[in-house]
Amino acid sequence: MRLYKYIIILAGCATGLLSCAKDEPDTFSGKGDVYFYNFAAGAAVQTTDSLAFTFAFAKGSLQDSVINVAFRATGPVSATDRQIKLSVTAATSAIAGKHFEALPANITLHAGRVTDTFQLRLLRTADLKTTPVVLELELQPNENFGTQLQYRITNPLTGARYHYTTYRIIISDILVKPISWIDGYFGTFTAKKLFLMCGLVGISPDYLNVPNLSLPERTYFATFTHRYLLEQAAAGHPILEDDGSPMTMGSAVQ
Q1: Which residues of 192-231 are buried (b: 16+ CB within 10 A; e: fewer)?
Q2: Fold (CATH) for 34-172
């Protein structure tokens, strides 16, 4: 009787495994899918479907910048290069030849790879100082790859989506809060404070626009600037923000 029970259990497990196998998408037969595979600044595992890029942290003489855009394919690795069709969507307001260098019709997934990158050259123009533009890239199906993996719902309440086959790049020359700017150390962000602090400690603004600024550096920059502000105020020359309020640093260094 006990042996009979074991046979029934094993038969049930085998049936369950076969059922699961049928439910799993078969990514290794036919052509695979291709999707964008880019990471948020400072994130080791969190991918993002958009990028905010600004020229504002660069020297005024810089006229262009090259960024790498990553993508990944499902399915088996190929021994030969494979072409992937690339286009821009109707949501794009950036102008080819003016805001970005014209894109190729295809990008290449090189032999032996499932993840690859292509270079995109962004161009600096005067209008970007006042008006950001959008460049939205889209991967298209072709004889090598499909694009069945379109999106996932990230918020069921709002219907917000993470898009796999489109990658939106917002291009501007407008100064924004640097990635490593923490209000607890540097206080409320202002352009005037940023440039003052950078001048005092001898760094360029883009030095703060990285995700891995160390705690000792952050503390030193903020503390040095805080002491300078106190010295100037004591000498009767308080440093004021553009709105007339006293410039202050964050609570962590006061």
Answers
A1: ebbebbbeebeeebebbbeeebeeeebeebbbebbebbee
A2: Immunoglobulin-like (2.60.40)
